[in-house]
Amino acid sequence: MKNLKQILFVVALSFGMFATSCSSDDNEGETIVPIQGKFNLSQTGTIVNGQEVLVDAPQNASGCNRDYLELRLSNTAVIGDYDGANCALTETTGTYVRSHNDLTITVGNVSSTSDIMNLTNKELKIKDKATGIITVYTR
Description:
Layout (H helix, E strand, L loop, with lengths): L1 H20 L15 E12 L2 E6 L11 E4 L4 E8 L4 E12 L2 E6 L2 E10 L3 E6 L5 E5 L1
Antiparallel strand pairs: 1-2, 1-3, 1-9, 3-4, 4-5, 5-6, 6-7, 7-8, 8-9
């Protein structure tokens, strides 16, 4: 009888652990991948007739490294832009705040808030809330 009680206890404990591991999360679909890192500009686009239309980012100067967005642990955002015949790099520094699946980047007095559509170890896809422009960055 003691073995039966022990087995029932283990089964009940296992069921309780399973039930709590399957509960809904408070993060409302927020990804747990860290957002910090350097992301290279890959594609831009928008939604047309309910479909995403993305093209290679025209902001990337031909023959140069790709423009980038670097999000640092200190909540500093660095935007790198390669331009011109000699691929000169211009870096603009600002700040960023992530709140659930919103990313707000502020440079000077200008802020832009985007929905984080996808965040993986290899990709950051955001959609600007004001303009609807989709930007895809890769690591």
